[in-house]
Amino acid sequence: MIFPTDTLALARALIGAVLVHEDGAGVVSGRIVETEGYPPGDPACHAYIGRTARNAGLFAAPGRAYVYRIYGRYHCLNVASEAEGVGAGVLLRAVEPLEGADRMAARRGVARRHDLARGPGRLAQAFGVGLAQQGVDFYAGGALRLEPPRSPCGPIGTSGRIGLTREADKPWRFYERGSPFVSGSGRMRA
DNA sequence: TGAAAGATTCGCT
DNA sequence: GCGAATCTTTCAG
């Protein structure tokens, strides 16, 4: 497999990789610029409390999609990692739109390119990803898939994770330095 | 059966 | 920059 199974290694490797989603109307794709890792045993990980109906996707084989609803309004897209039966994954937080930016804008209702997929909920909405994509294999080359970086990515930075109330200080957030598409500046929370 | 918390976003001040 | 919206899942009694 071109992507590692170790959670944090995967989170880093995904920076610069390309997320592609083909739906009935066309292709949307984007270059991943921000991720967060949720390793096994992490108190902030959904799987930490044990396997439930909701987080079962995290226990799937590496490379499977785990989609969950947050705050009742939005979806977040994750990639399962480690091994089947282990609850861990990587959250995709932001991408730089490549193809289909106009379709993202239509779905999101915004015109500014850097606002199309900056943030987990926005990313899922822009790509048209929802619970229907639960358990999809990113490595199988299907409608929803991950592709290797098309161009060398810039320097990668790390920081504490965003939006968490526990373990937020762990440096398990990865992002491309200097990219205007990361959600880091301007919307950090304590 | 009831109550609280959560990996967020949008809108108004 | 700060506070509200919104609903599913999970924990407690």
Structure description:
- The structure is a single chain.
- This protein has 190 residues and is an alpha+beta fold.
- Helix content is 12%, strand content 28%.
- Strands 1, 2, 3, 4, 5, 6, 7 and 8 form an eight-stranded antiparallel beta sheet that branches.
- A hairpin with an 8-residue loop joins strand 4 and strand 5.
- Helix 2 packs across helix 3.
- It is globular, with a radius of gyration of 15 Å.
- It starts with 6 loop residues before the first helix and ends in a 14-residue tail after the last strand.
- It binds a DNA duplex (13 and 13 nucleotides) through strand 3, strand 4 and helix 3.
Task: List descriptors.
3 helices; 12% helix; globular; 190 residues; DNA-binding; disordered C terminus; alpha+beta; 8-stranded antiparallel beta sheet
Q: Brief description of this entry?
A:
This protein has 190 residues and is an alpha+beta fold. It has three helices and eight strands, in the order H-E-E-E-E-E-H-H-E-E-E. 12% of the residues lie in helices and 28% in strands.
